[in-house]
Amino acid sequence: MTVLIRNIQHDDWSAILRIQAQCYHALTPEPLDALRNKVQLSPATCWVAEHAREVLGYLLCHPWHDGPPPSLSTALTHLEGDELFYMHDLAISPSARGLGIGQRLIDTALNYARQDGYEEVALVAVQDAPAYWQRQGFAPSPTSKCLREYGPGAQFMKRWLGTAEPA
Fold first, then answer.
1. Are strands 155-160 and 139-140 parallel, antiparallel or unpaired?
2. What region does 151 belong to: left with phi over 0, alpha with psi -120 to 50, or beta?
3. Percentage of the chain lying above the pLDDT 70 cut
4. In terms of C-beta density within 10 A (0-12 exposed, 13-18 middle, 19 or more buried), how is residue 83 classed?
5. Strand 120-125's sheet: what is its strand order?
6. C-alpha span between 80 and 66 (Å, rounded)
7. DSSP assignment string, the chain
């Protein structure tokens, strides 16, 4: 199967919203405005996986500060720093799971982050995903933010990309 990883385009939003609705059951899906906002602020770091003109998954990322993660369902007026690369939302269509699409999107994001000089990547693992992200090299990290809005069991996690371990 040939899968194209490309930046999000205007026509992708209906597929992205459909995939989001299929994937999130432990938290309320974010509204379209909040999702589009990430792409408006950082269009080079938001991707879809496409096969035969069908969007099968997406990953929204953006630069962020080394502090609490951004709130869900809230449009950002600006990106608060660029100390780390933040993976905001990854979702794969249930019909495409097991095809390696999530890994392709993650690899695209991590390669971008390395090439752009980031040494650390962060995310909030939701639903049953913390174990998945640990297999991807992420580890739980303390945060001062209450993660209740992210649903039960949410964990703030980070992965080091730099050449030397952080102090």
1. antiparallel
2. left
3. 97
4. middle
5. 4-7, 46-51, 54-64, 84-92, 120-125, 155-160, 139-140
6. 9
7. ---EEEE--GGGHHHHHHHHHHH-SSSPPPPHHHHHHHHHH-GGGEEEEEETTEEEEEEEEEEE-SSSPPPTT---SS----SEEEEEEEEE-GGGTTSSHHHHHHHHHHHHHHHTT--EEEEEE-TT-HHHHHHTT-EE---SS--GGG-TT-EEEEEE-SSS---
Is residue 91 within 8 A of residue 125, CB to CB? The reply is no
- Is pTM, for the whole model, over 0.85? yes
Tokens 């003109």 correspond to what residue?
53
Spatial neighbors of 77 by CB under 8 A, at least 6 apart, are none
115: its two tokens: 């090439």
Q: What tokens were used for 36?
A: 């589009």
| Token pair listed for 17 | 């919203």
pLDDT band at 121 (very low <50, low <70, confident <90, very high): very high
Tens-place pLDDT, residues 50-69: 999 999 999 999 999 999 99
Altogether, the residues listed in the chain come to a count of: 167
